[in-house]
Amino acid sequence: MKSTYKVFLLLSLLGITTACNDDFLKEVPLDRFSPENLLTNTAGFDAAVVGLYEGARQEHIIASLNFEYMTVGTDQTQWGRNDSRGNKDYSLLNPNLDATIVYWDWAYKTMILRANTVLDGLNNPNLSIKTEDLNNIKGQALFFRAYTYNFLANIYGGVPIVKQTITEPKFDFVRNSRLEVLNFAAKDLEEAITLLPLQVKDGRIPRAAAFHLLSEIYISLGMESKDASFYDKSISAASKVINKEAGDYQLMTTRFGAAASRPGDVFSDLFANGQVNYSAGNKEVMWAWQFESTNVGGSFSTSLANNSIRYWGPEYDRLQTPNRVLNVVVDSIGRGIGVNSPTNYAKYEVWALDPKDMRNSVYNIRRTFYYNNPADKDYFGKPIVVKKGTNGNLFLARNDGTLTAISIDTLRQYYPYFRKIEGSSINNDILSGNTSKDFSRMRVAETYLLRAEAYFRKGDLENAAKDINVVRTRAKATLISATKVTEDFILDERTRELIVEEPRLRTLIRMGRLVDRVRKYNSEPSVANGPSSGKTIQDFNKYWPIPQKVIDANTGAKFEQNPGY
Fold first, then answer.
1. Cα 486 from Cα 539, distance rounded (Å)
2. Which of 1, 66, 452, 502 lies in disulfide reach of 464, CB 3.0 to 4.6 Å?
3. How far apart are CA 6 and CA 43, in angstroms?
4. How far is CA 421 from CA 64, 258, 335, in A?
């Protein structure tokens, strides 16, 4: 963990600037870490690169302890409360909302600043670093800068492109167009793929991950520029991964690892404890956020851990037996707080095509819950049974089938959830709601779906169906014909395959589908006459607003706000 601490110290100094050009007045703090004395050798640059990985993981937790804005308020999930937060009321999405500010600051103050610091440092002519090491360092920094600009383009639209570290106050930023931002990100990745190695240590960025992201950005460029040649480029980039030209990565089709000796299937094996990384035999995951507390750069506190359970898991510990004995928090189920409460679309509708789809199996979606408090001998170990009352609401049922007066909260406490989130609690603290399980960020299954999307957009429905069917074959799901391939089907297939892993908000924005999909699948209020994302979202919400503080501080030039805000 020493390298991580070094990076924290370094990054606390990166904002210090000087307006004086006299060299003898420039202070180089030799007693602590700064760019001048850290970025001098391979070890120092690698410590700074570790800071980029740490920053990338922050994307998972920065919104706050209670929100995960990259999914909540989309077609997949709603805020698991009856109030207006969490984009349950889109009129609250405004330039002063904390979320709009925190993601902007994360992008510019953390990721782009750190990437540019590394890239600028590599321009030092006095460096003595082996070419192989220099290329790998530069490739990783370019990847993360491209990743961040793709993030910005798919949240805010056009944003300023900052190519170097800024050493003096600047008040005249202007917005580049979304097309310019996407082109800049693509150029970073086009260079990164010439520099990154084929195989890397767990958690590091391999060449395949850069090709994967480049495939997505080329699709966005094709849509933004109306130039269909970008779809061919996307297909080519994805094919480099699929054909193993960018490393030994593949769709896993047979069971593997220690989990294979337990009940389950190959899909559940992908997310089993200790099996998310390549070194565990998982050749499908190209990049995973590292949360294991025993890894260098891994999480070491509950607040920095994988909080998927906290966000996505229901508050099953608030359920009680008919004798009014509460459940207890246990093992890998952790402690959810019902934040990302799945919509009916994600829980039921998307599986209607083929209920026997492996991804809908009991090993991948938990739909049955049990009473787990031994203090109630009448119900301990028995499944929770609910039935509709005369008012249409769900109530607990007794052993004899009669209804109790205990109503069930299906928004926050009792709903099917995706078992990808289950894992060992960080530092054995099951009450934290966080785990030490690594988080799959890029998988070959998504590469197939990206290539399918590129084929679809160029009008090649036959090849689009073939790629989708590769993923569906692994899931033992009904195959589809070319006539069934639509943009909506691709979005549905992404839900079946990538829910929890996918930052759904960014996918919907990049496809131009946020508004209509939210209206279609997230309009049902959780309480009568209450707010809902679908009823409150407006056409201009297709992008998030630019933070007002950014506009106000930019006194030297006009900084345009997104329309509607």
1. 22
2. 452
3. 11
4. 18, 18, 11
**401 residue type, one letter:** G
| 259 Cα distance to chain centroid | 24
Distances (CA, A) of 443 to 212, 451, 497: 9, 13, 10
Please tell me the distance from the alpha carbon of residue 447 to that of residue 249, in angstroms, as a whole number: 11
Per the DSSP assignment, residues forming a β-bridge with 79 are: 340
Structure confidence at residue 11 as a pLDDT band (50, 70, 90) = very low
Which secondary structure element, helix H or strand E, spans residue 445, and what is its range? helix 444-457
With CA atoms as reference, report the closest residue to 76 among 513, 512, 499.
Answer: 499
Exposure b/e, 285-302, CB count within 10 A at least 16 = b: bbbbbbbbbebebbbbeb
The pLDDT tens digits for 356-405 are 999 999 999 999 999 999 999 999 999 999 999 988 889 999 999 999 99
Helix (H) or strand (E) holding 396: strand 394-397
Task: Give CA–CA dist 430/318, Å, rounded.
Answer: 15
DSSP single-letter state for residue 477: P
Q: Quick one: which of 426, 438, 449, 435 has its CA closest to 498? A: 449
Looking at residue 66, its pLDDT comes to 64
pTM (2 decimals)? 0.92
Residue 111 near residue 49 (C-beta atoms within 8 A):
no
Which 3 state secondary structure label does DSSP give 310?
helix
Cβ–Cβ under 8 Å, residues 444 and 284: yes
Percentages (nearest 5) of helix, strand, coil residues in the chain: 45, 5, 50
pLDDT in tens, 72-102: 999 999 999 999 999 999 999 999 999 999 9
Beta strand segments in 227-291, E? 285-289
**499, 418 Cβ separation under 8 angstroms:** yes
Helix (H, G, I), strand (E, B) or coil at 443: strand
